[in-house]
Amino acid sequence: MTKLVLHIGMQKTGSTAIQRSLAANNGNGFVLPHLGGKPLKPLHRDALMQLFPKSSEQLTNRPIQKGRNLDVVADPVHQIRLAAAKTNTVILSSEGIAKIDLRKFASFARELFDDVVVVGYVREPISLMSAAFWTSIRAYPAAGFNLGRLPYRSYWIFDKIFGRENVQLWRYDKSDFPDGDIVQHFCSRLGLPKLTSENRNETVSRPAVAATYRLNRGLRGANWMPSSASAPQL
């Protein structure tokens, strides 16, 4: 019996750590298909968006705007089919998977796999906003920060298309995870071999966040733009 695990994020819930740990241990009871990108950072969304776009604009605009689709392998479908032939469990992972045509993807997946399961983590709004704010200010110039763009509103579509019984959403709280490690939690919930995180983000103190915010604002107020050699590592 073959199973597809579709890991959907959400943002700021350790998706990168999960993806890198899975990629580093690929073939150990599961297969994470290489559809393009760096070995430890799969481009699953980009490949699936080419296969199942919601509109023609997704095909024409993304390579120009992001420069990432050009790294997608020539035949992602073949890679997914090859993975299904090698193992009982195939994993696809992307925080932006809701942006593809999920109905077409679900039809494709059900033809290839006996079981399709959607999994993801949900972070409390205040915790999510704090993490997103830190991400927005630790780069210079600071990235945009929009409180209205929380990802929860798109999650209902997974229940509708894949069936509520096939969707598992878990609370993102490090106190719930073995040794505080989300990768161990992810593997244990799916019955995968035990893996540990390849990279753990340390908790940032409030004074550090405040200092970084003030530094970023000060540099921006002075209209200072860094060169590649002088850019501060915030």
Automatic annotation (TrEMBL):
InterPro entries: P-loop_NTPase. SUPFAM superfamilies: P-loop containing nucleoside triphosphate hydrolases. This is Sulfotransferase family protein. It comes from Sphingomonas piscis.
